[in-house]
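Shipment paperwork, digital attachment
Item: protein structure file
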Amino acid sequence: MAKATSLLKAYLSETIPPNGGFIITAFFQSGSAYTIYEITAYSNVKDIYRTPEGIVFKTDGNRTHLLVEPAIYSKKHMEPVHREEGLSIPYRFNELTIINGTKSEKIMVPRDHMSLHSSFTILEKAQDYFSFIFYPTKDVYIAIKKFIADSLYNDCSLTKDNAMEASTKILETIKKFNIWE
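Attachment content:
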C-alpha cells in the first residue's frame, strides 16, 4: 500500500522524495464543519526549506481543492474565490462540481486543477489542520481516495456515501495533473 507520512515529520527527517509526490493538507474552521482540502503534486524539487508560513518547495506543481460547506454557513451565495481569507478557494461556482450532501452540506470539487510555477508553499497553522505527503507508488491513487474519503467521513461528519462520492470526484481531478508529463 502507498506510504503517507506527516509532511513536517518527512521534512525534519529529510525523507521528502525529491522526484515527486502528493501532499494533502486540510484546514478545519474551528467550531464548524467548514473545511478546505488542498491537494498538491510536485516533481523534480530544486530546494525545500521552512519559513514561518510553512514549507516552501522550489519546483513546479499542480494543485486542486475540495471545500466542505456546512448547512449553517451564512455566506453560501458568495463565490468561493471571494470569501474571506481562510475560507476561500480560487474557484467560481461554474468551475466546480457541487455535491449536495445528505445533511444539507455542500461539497465543492473543482473540475480542473491549477498549475503552480517555480515554487509553492504548504502552509502551516498552529492548530486545526493536517498535512500528509504520499510517496509515489503504483497504488497511490487508491490510497489518496481512501484517505480523503476517511477524512471526510471522520473529520467532516459526511455520510459514507457522500464521502465516497466526493473522494471519487476529487480523484478525477487529481488524475488530470500533468506535472509528470
